[in-house]
Every structure is written in C-alpha cells, then in structure tokens.
Amino acid sequence: MTPEQLRAELARSQQQVADMAAAQEEFLRAVSHDLRAPLRHVTSYGTLVREVLGDLPPEVVQGAEVQEALGFLATMDQSARRMGLMIDGLQALVRTSRAPLRLQPVPLADAVAQARATLAPAEAGRAVEWRVAADLPTLQADPALLQDLLVQLLGNALKFTRPVAQPCITVLADAAPAGQVAFTVQDNGVGFDPARAGSLFGVFQRLHREMEFEGVGTGLALCRAIAQRHGAEVSATAVPGAGCTVRVSWPVNPAVAKES
Question: How far is CA 233 from each of CA 4, 6, 118, 183, 254, rounded to the nearest angstrom?
C-alpha cells in the first residue's frame, strides 16, 4: 500500500470514528429529549390518582386495598423521578461532549475551593477534615468543565464518607511522566470492591445499593467524558471499608483536544 493510500485509509477511518461519535451524540440527545414528555405524564397522573384516592371516605382510604395502591403509586413515583435523574445525566453528557472547549490556565487549588463552596450544603452539619495540598498544579483547562469534574469527585468523596465517624478528604499533587501533571482525590469512606473497578466510569454504573447512597451512576461517566475532552485520564482504586483514591492525569498542553 502506497503512502497516499495509507493516508486515504487513515482519513476514512477518522471520518468513520467522527461519524460514529456524532451518531451517538444525536442518539443520546434524542433519547434524553423524547423521554421527557411521557415521564411527565407518569409523574403528573400518579399525583392525580393519589388525589382521587384521597377524596374517598376515610374508612375506605385506610382500607388494605387503597393503602396497597398508594404504596404502588409511591414506588412508581420514586422510579419516575429516578428516571428523570438518569435523563438529566444523559443530557449533561451530551452538553459536555458538545460544549466549546475554552482552555485557559486554572489554578487547581482555586478550582477545588470553588467546588467545596458549591458542595457546602452536602457538608453542612458534618465535621469533615479537608487536606488540600499547597503545591497543586495549574491546569490548562476549560474552567466550567473542570469545575463540573471537581464537584463530582469531591461530591462523591463527601457522599461515601457519610458513614465514617471522622471523614477525611485529601487532594494531593501526584507524580506524572513528562508532559503531564496529576492529582489525586482520596477519602476514607466505604470504598468499593476493586474487582468491579472496570465498570466504575460507565453510564448508570453503581457499586452500592440505591438504599445506601443516592445517585444514578452518571457522575463518574461525566468525569471521564470531561477528562477525555482535555486529553486527560481518570482512574480509581479502592479497598472495601478503607476509602477510595481517584487519580487524574492531565496533559500540560491539551492542545490536541482543543477544537478549532
């Protein structure tokens, strides 16, 4: 195969990848939009059914059949609201993949402080020990997307340290090869089974039961999408009952990911 043929084949392959990515984004956009209307009907008509049942005589409302029906409605409403959160997650992924990438120097320490301020309601009433290193790097990043990533990572650390008597969250600079900088977010929370780490960053993947911790499993998928747009990588390690460490490796010059 001649060099010209190789270049043509490479161009075709790149176009196929771009077409597949565009088709995936269009699919996610259509799904997240088109599911909204029937979901609104489920939640609104469930409310109307509860109102109708509530207008029955008290002795009927307290009967076993009506109480069972109300329980069914509560489960339906909970599931519909969860589906709404899942659609929100899909829409966030679509926005992340399509938003213009506006790179600029962002001091990571400042971005962490801003993310902590955003998460203040989740920390209210808790004595969380924060250990944020003074030597955190400055990243070439889109400030809004980096903020979304940090809110997800620090929010997870807050969530999964709730059962811990003395929660501690640490943000450190980490060693990285030439051309990259790295940082880690560590917590002493519940951790997870490392055998399941491969699915951690997938869409709708959860490593804990819903009754234990809220969420629909899109936060870390969003982190991965943000990292990939910058040419960065994110990974996680954990020990059950002994916390989790998320490592983010960021290119010093993410120009390869910047859109023209």
Answer: 33, 29, 24, 11, 12
